Amino acid sequence: MNAKWLELERKMQESGVDTxxxxxxxxxYYLTGFLSNPHERFLGAILQAGSEPFLxxxxxxxxxxxxxxxxxxxxxxxxxxxxxxxxxxRLGDLKGTFGFEKEQVSVAKFxxxxxxxxxxxxxxxxxxxxxLRVSKSAVEVGxxxxxxxxxxxxxxxxxxxxxxxxxxxxxxxxxxxxxxKLGADxxxxxxxxxxxxxxxxPHGVPGTRQIRKGDLLMFDxxxxxxxxxxxxxxxxxxxxxSPELIKIYETVLAANEAxxxxxKPGVTFASIDxxxxxxxxxxxxxxxxxxxxxxGLGIDVHEFPSVHGENEYRLAEGHVFTVEPGIYVxxxxxxxxxxxxxxxxxxxxxxxxxxxxxTYI
Length: 361
Fold this sequence. Notes:
The protein is built from 10 helices and 19 strands. The chain is an alpha+beta fold.
């Protein structure tokens, strides 16, 4: 049983939970090393007090699970089986409290689970996994760094295709082509390329707008590689920018650098958000910084913790998250600069290395 399972078992003992069922495929991967998308089929990792963990996987995934999973027992179910009946035959009558991730279980699945397994009490264990995942191991950091290197290569290759007249959608196609060509598993979210006044939309949708001289051009892109995500935003100038856009850019860059300079173990996430927000407010753009400073990053592209001005959770070594201040002025344009960072024993390591100074293309 690996260290993650041992910590989960400790939580079970503390909370009086006798059996835990993990069904989020990313959590199954986190605990066992088996990464799979079961689609509509059942996938679960199970731990009973005093026993070794085991997997229940679709029969069509058995070979892949046996090759990848760090467990000694793997059960399977066919398309005509009730997976909860298979579980019941393995677990027997459940006694005590049953734990599962509430966010992963629909009402229909809960009712089916309850009718079949007949547990008396239940509790949510999703927060246990959240807390386990928040500090990344050296192996996890290595995987995130690999995902970062890939997305920066993708950005470099895609920028070679930028010219007047190319559309946002065409550049998105280039991004996603390069993601596959360079060996990533896929994008970690819908790739975003926005230009001109559309850069003032924090979650804008790429379309047929053509790139023109004087535009801001924003790329917000990321990949999954080996089950871990990267997430980077860079904003460029196409030809010469107006003085106002240059001021917006320099303000966002200063906010990004101020937040990174404030990162060290023991400070709060709120204080980092404040460090960036103060720079933007002082420059007169406070009302145009519309979102939190960042978010946790790991096996999910958006995960705990949320980096905002009311989060008093304290940074610790091994935390990985994004720093992405932005200014979005309607009808004018917007700038966001996003880095992925790791909290170290003494400060911070910036995992993204793509240049941040204003660059014209």
